[in-house]
Every structure is written in C-alpha cells, then in structure tokens.
Prior knowledge:
mainly alpha; TIM Barrel; 7 helices; tRNA_ribo_trans-like; zinc; TGT-like_sf; tRNA-guanosine(34) queuine transglycosylase activity; tRNA-guanine(15) transglycosylase-like domain-containing protein
Amino acid sequence: MGVGYPLDLVICTALGVDMYDCVYPTRTARFGVALTGDGGEFLRLKAHTYQTDHRAIDDHCPCQACQHYTRAKLHSLLKTNNPLASTLMTHHNITYMMTLVSNMRKAIQQHTYANFCHNFVQKHFASSQKTIPQWVHDALQAAGIPFPIP
C-alpha cells in the first residue's frame, strides 16, 4: 500500500508485486503536477514557464486534458483555482498510470519486461540528470534484471 510513483511500480512489479493502491496520481494532480513521458517524468503546470506553452501535456495521451486543453490553459485554470483544473489533471494522471500499467503488462506477456525496465529507468534518470540510485540497481538485481552501473 502506498506504492505509487511510476518508478516504484516498475521496480516492484519486477519483484513480483501485482497490486497497488496509492493516491499519488490524484494528489499530485491537485497540486498541478502532470505525469508524462516514458520514464515517469512530470510537469509542474503551475510554473510560469507554461503560461504561454500551447502544447498538450502529452501528444500521445488520449485523455480529455491532452485532447482539448493546452498547457497554457491548464496553467491558467490552476492559477485561478478553477476546480476544472483538478478534474482534468486527475483524469490525465490516472490515464497516464493506466497506460503505464498496460505497457508493463504487455511487456510481461511478451517476455520483454527486462528491456522495459531498462528503458524506463534510463529515461527516468536521463530526464532528471541524476545517477541511478543503488537501491534501483539492487532491486533489479534481486529481480534477476541486472542493470549495469556506469
């Protein structure tokens, strides 16, 4: 219970966990954070940067927020505390998590989950320009998915 970060879902699934219950996607949505990308990146849409950004949160996401609202419009809704903002952001984040889990399931069924983990972890830490923590290496090693330490 309480495991909800995208990285944690990927790692814990590799370790055999198959059920999750967490408020992370909905709580972060209420704070104006949109989950996005193949590596669990996120956008803080309350930031001034998005005031004039007329792109969707994620071009490949089928949710209502991505199909009908720009980052700039969501930024405006968030800054004015419009309740629609939380609804749209929540819908987006839930859609993101459902897509992530669906992709994880496909990788497991296709026996490509090790590659999925490698790609996800590399993208996750490339976006933040941080080194991959030892716990990630240790967890993947325990799951039989060795991940080389650079």
